[in-house]
Amino acid sequence: MRLPVLFIMITVMLDAMGIGLIMPVMPDLLSEVQGGTLGKAAIWGGILSTSFALMQFIFGPILGGLSDRFGRRPVLLISLVVMSLDYLVMAIAGSIWWLLIGRIVGGITAATHSTANAYIADISKPEDKAANFGLLGAAFGIGFILGPLIGGLLAEYGTRAPFYAAAVLAALNALFGWFILSETVTDKIRRPFSLTRSNPIGALKVLGKLPNIANLLVVYFLYQVAFTVYPAVWAYFGKERFDWDPATIGLSLGLFGVTIALVQGLLIRPFIRVLGERGTVIYGFGFDLMAFLALAFVTSGTLALILTPLAALAGVVTPALQGIMSKAVDDNQQGELQGALTSVSALAMIMAPMTMTYTFAVFTSETAPIYMPGAPFLLSVGLIAIALFVFARSGRTKVT
Questions:
Q1: Using CA atoms, how far apart are residues 373 and 377, in angstroms rounded to an integer?
Q2: Does any domain span residue 132?
Q3: What range defines the domain where residue 42 resides?
Q4: Nearest-5° angle of CA 208, CA 210, CA 216?
Q5: Distances from the Cα of 264 to the Cα of 15, 136, 139, 153, 213, angstroms
Q6: pLDDT of residue 200
Q7: Would you call 211 helix, strand, or coil by DSSP?
Q8: What is the DSSP string of 252-302?
Q9: Inter-axis angle of helices 3-22 and 113-123, to 10 degrees?
Q10: Per-residue pLDDT reduced to its tens digit, 187-199
């Protein structure tokens, strides 16, 4: 594997590690900083996640457009340096407001996921795009394995230790990229930066005019909202339902990441070869419906640990959808497309954390109509069902 591709995969992996490192300590950290009940901590966790996602929504297309104009290399390296400094700020934050500022800056720096995807699109043949996007998904999964496991272990040294670890990792990767990352944007595909197109609304408006892309963007959005139930409520769900400690929460997320990495790194190619991209998406939706329904009602921590990696088997959906859409746009629109997809994901993250954590808080409160910590998973079941319906009714694009 060429070193620049390795850097891109490490960048995506560290994005996931940075998130996963801090997830096991978030319930305790928020209670420590803000006080109050676990439900209140969950709601503040939703606010922090929403602010993070709002910045991704705004800046995903901007960074994608800037990378189409100035190249992938400077966008990625500058963002990694700022990300490292941001984690240091969060490590010493003494109030919820400093944590909020940290999440806002972190959302901007993490919007480079669109640039990483655009880099892969630049170097991939059309028939290889979905599988190569799967490699990035696998890298994200590996990050999800290492992040929560390391975060759970570092929690033994305090709630701030994972932030220092994330800062060091981001800085080291920036240094690695400085020496080995080559540029893929040539004058042939370079395009002037346009703020009119490089904003969430403008990018989605332009791409929505392409045949069938609008329907696929809706499907992508619904799927991202549904799947966000994991980062949004899993730590709180595990603590409330099974009384898990941070180490066990980290282990469960690590199991999820193992399966994501295996599915997207090894199984995506045979799935697409056998089922095609559309068939792969439909398979993934079906598996999600079963997994979310089971998690909504599970009462055994052991069974939940078994269901966690099984739920990740639906991880083929995202790279398959990305492959379909990437082949439907021109080469000089790859950054724009990936920026738009980052914004769609971020829009989902704006809506999902507050929705999921509020649902969790309502159904675990003393005044709950029925005690049901798994209620957010039932909400995800409904969203996946709608996404499957829209996808099934959408016509085939000319590239599938």
A1: 9
A2: yes
A3: 3-182+197-393
A4: 60
A5: 17, 8, 9, 26, 23
A6: 65
A7: coil
A8: HHHHHHHHHHHIIIIIHHHHHHHHHHHHHHHHHHHHHHHHHHHHHH---HH
A9: 150
A10: 776 777 766 666 6
